[in-house]
Specification:
Length: 150
């Protein structure tokens, strides 16, 4: 039986300490062109994004991730973790899935990422940022598929 986790912080702590979780933590993020020209506008856009999707981690720029978007041949999650064992990683491997894929394709890729990481790592957007043109329905599919994995 999965432990009772009441907050995002408890889920993140369990993940980082190797404890049992109710589900893997999820964090997707994106850039906010135009809004990033003003600190107040950027803060408002970031908080709105968080309130809309209720991710476990609100990204800041000190988060360590493995960026896959600059490679022609993507490593598997297992290979990426072997290369950087101290980095919490995971994620969708293709930008076009989040932008052009169906909700079913998004769900399948997220669930594959969870299986590859044995549910012990964050699920991140492809590379370091979610495409700004990703449909709301696909972002929701990624978010909801994490809840259905456990």
């Amino acid at each position: 039986m999965a432990p009772v986790i009441k907050t995002h912080r408890e889920r993140l702590e369990a993940c980082l300490l190797g404890g049992e979780m109710d589900r893997p933590p999820v964090a997707l993020w994106r850039h906010f062109p135009v809004d990033d020209q003003s600190p107040d506008a950027l803060a408002a856009a970031t908080l709105n994004f968080q309130q809309t999707y209720d991710f476990d981690l609100l990204r800041n720029y000190s988060v360590q991730v493995i960026n896959w978007h600059d490679r022609e041949t993507y490593p598997s999650l297992k290979e990426a973790q072997a290369q950087s064992p101290s980095v919490v990683c995971g994620g969708l491997r293709r930008w076009d899935t989040m932008v052009l894929g169906t909700r079913e394709q998004v769900t399948a890729e997220v669930q594959d990422a969870v299986q590859q990481t044995l549910g012990q790592h964050f699920i991140l957007g492809t590379g370091c940022v979610l495409p700004t043109i990703a449909p709301h329905g696909n972002i929701m599919a990624a978010r909801r598929s994490i809840e259905n994995v456990s």
